[in-house]
Write a structure and sequence with these properties.
The protein folds into two domains: 6-154, 3-Layer(bba) Sandwich (Glucose Oxidase, domain 1), CATH 3.50.30; 159-290, 3-Layer(aba) Sandwich (Rossmann fold). By secondary structure, the chain is α/β, with parallel strands linked by helices. Helices cover 23% and strands 27% of the residues. The strands form four sheets. Strands 1-2-8-6-4-3-9 form a seven-stranded mixed barrel. A three-stranded parallel sheet has the order 10-11-12, with helices on one face. A two-stranded parallel ribbon has the order 5-7. The chain has helices spanning 41-45, 100-106, 117-127, 143-154, 159-171, 189-192, 223-235, 278-281, and strands at residues 6-11, 16-23, 28-35, 53-57, 61-62, 81-83, 86-87, 110-113, 130-137, 211-219, 240-248, 260-264, 271-276, 285-290. Helix 7 links the parallel strand 10 (211-219) and strand 11. It is globular, with a radius of gyration of 20 Å. The mean pLDDT is 86.
């Protein structure tokens, strides 16, 4: 059974669903979608079309017949998280090989249960596609904590995916894309927040011997890239590391330079750069803002 008592699924528009934890104690993030099937939860989880998405099952009871290897659509789950109304912890079926909860834990997939999945589905239907973050918590999340999670959901950017798509079109071959959580590699971890949001590293390809390209929207002090390099090395020894950034604003504190730069933008120390993407913000724009929040 889960060691933590609470779970929260928070959408980018601030709508929050607080329930009980299910599956792995990991952070899930991605686009929330729903599935109306009355059965087939394991097939849904392992369907590659759900890669990068968090699935809400609208039928209230899930996990009642357990899981088994023969029902998987692929060798592993692809969904990033699962949301259900009720999860059965004691499945009843002669061919069951385990519970839904244990299956999610084995594959490091977080979940949430005991929430109003009908309300979540209606919200998505009315307000459209939503990015979200799912976390397990020791105590009921406060309004401040829920606001932090909503902000985290809004920070998902598609830069690496867009670059990979363009390169694939040019050379007529796929480019694998992964996400790297650098939180625990930061040199300012104790200054970030009392309870920093740990995300999930998802790199489903071999790092050793590859030439990798790190992607970031803004290159500033170089500390973020230094942390990313440490994170990559922990996964294996790449043949080479390259860096592609959309904006280089200067003010380096570490000896790090990008191999590929979209645009160099001189800035003052009191200014910040905000990058927006069509996929997540409705427009491709770069803003220079004062730290006071004025445009």
């Amino acid at each position: 059974m889960p060691s933590k008592r609470f779970a929260a699924l928070v959408l980018e528009d601030g709508r929050a669903f607080v329930g009980a934890p299910l599956g792995a104690d990991a952070v899930g993030e991605g686009e929330v979608v729903f599935n109306t099937a009355m059965t087939g939860y394991q097939e849904v989880l392992t369907d590659p079309s759900y890669a990068g998405q968090m699935v809400c099952m609208t039928y209230p009871l899930q996990g009642n017949y357990g899981v088994r290897a023969a029902d998987a659509e692929s060798s592993r789950p692809w969904a990033r998280a699962l949301a259900v109304r009720w999860a059965c912890h004691a499945p009843s079926h002669h061919s069951s090989e385990g519970s839904l909860d244990s299956y999610l834990r084995r594959w490091d997939v977080p979940g949430i249960t005991e929430i109003d999945t009908r309300a979540l589905t209606r919200h998505i239907r009315i307000h459209g596609t939503q990015r979200a973050v799912l976390v397990h918590e020791d105590k009921a999340p406060s309004q401040r904590r829920l606001a932090e999670l909503a902000a985290a959901a809004r920070r998902v950017t598609p830069l690496a995916e867009r670059l990979a798509s363009r390169l694939s079109d040019l050379v007529k071959q796929p480019f694998p894309v992964g996400t790297l959580d650098i939180t625990l590699y930061r040199d300012d971890l104790s200054m970030v927040a009392p309870q920093p949001v740990l995300k999930k590293t998802e790199i489903d390809f071999e790092v050793k011997g590859r030439a990798l390209v790190l992607c970031d929207d803004v290159l500033y002090t170089g500390r973020t890239i230094r942390a990313a390099m440490d994170g990559v090395i922990d996964l294996g020894r790449p043949r080479a590391l390259r860096l592609a950034v959309l904006i280089d604003r200067g003010h380096r504190e570490f000896p790090i330079e990008a191999n590929y730069v979209g645009k160099s933008v001189p800035t003052a120390g009191r200014e910040v750069i905000k990058v927006m993407f069509q996929e997540t913000d409705g427009a491709d724009e770069v803003w220079i803002l004062e730290k006071t929040g004025d445009k």
